[in-house]
């Protein structure tokens, strides 16, 4: 009973958060009611089936019983950031509620492995590391395994390897192309997967376990017969990063629509009257940024890099502005993808608990393309147009643009993919109950 009450409270909190966010958006964006209704009507008339298909035309699925290591390999080899998780016990079911359990993504894997690495790092700094004969410089992707270390010491090295594999392969998909990131196999060596398949915790930990630990990526599909209005609301108000597309009566997923793909699509709408009108507005006229400066989660350049990743994990966000001084001058950007450098450089990983954000970003800037191109803080001004922000998000393949003001480029806010999509839609009364056949509470309960 207690567990059920706790779940109900969690769901209620999640729904309330979505409602509060969207109410703020609608009250601040100041679009004429007639224009908003016209936009909603237009998006409602666009079938989901008309949205461009994923590259290759086939959506990659990962079985729930797949090990973490094998899931990393599938995502890396396929150059994708996330994939639906299929329940093999109900593989033949035509009911998506039985067939799919959720969505696994690099963030989930990175966060889980980072926690494992953090715990194992304690052992590395204690007598167990000395007893195993492992020096600080030996903590690399496969270093501890090669030296014969076992237990928590080996786990630390394997944690480094797993995160390295995830981010090295994932950055390619994050940019939409593959030239900036080698696959996990190329980066870590042909024996990488053979090693982690034999070692704990990767040998016994399954994707199903990760889904239970990180529940913020539910499987919430729309039908091919649904409208793009449904998709846009799911990606904005309800904070989903991706929406699977299914066809009634058929088991396979037909498409997979992400926040980034929608913003790319909006960028391609230049020249259309409705888009040109809205995109020409200053972001301040649309109430952007929706968060006040005090609400923006940031990291000071003198703080430890581990604290930056913890802050992203605790707040379920993918990036932070790096700031300096009491006025919070924007001097850089840290994102989940940057862990690739931290874990692919053994000499850096061995000292990561003491490495500052400033030193870390300096190392990235001087690392070269071998470890992927670091993305600096992309900024705009309070008087920038929405169109310029959309262009920055699409052309730079980033998920957020920071708003800076004054001569010192002081942190004023942040604009995310979700925020941009929210500018174009509003939710008609009881829309999801009427058009998708299930309530928001049921979706978040999965």
From TrEMBL:
The keyword Repeat applies. Residues 53-119, 291-349, 373-432 form the CBS domain. It comes from the Eukaryota. PROSITE patterns: CBS. Keywords: CBS domain, Repeat. InterPro entries: AMPK_gamma/SDS23_families, CBS_dom, CBS_dom_sf. Gene3D superfamilies: CBS-domain (3.10.580.10). Pfam families: CBS. This is CBS domain-containing protein. It comes from Brassica rapa subsp. trilocularis.
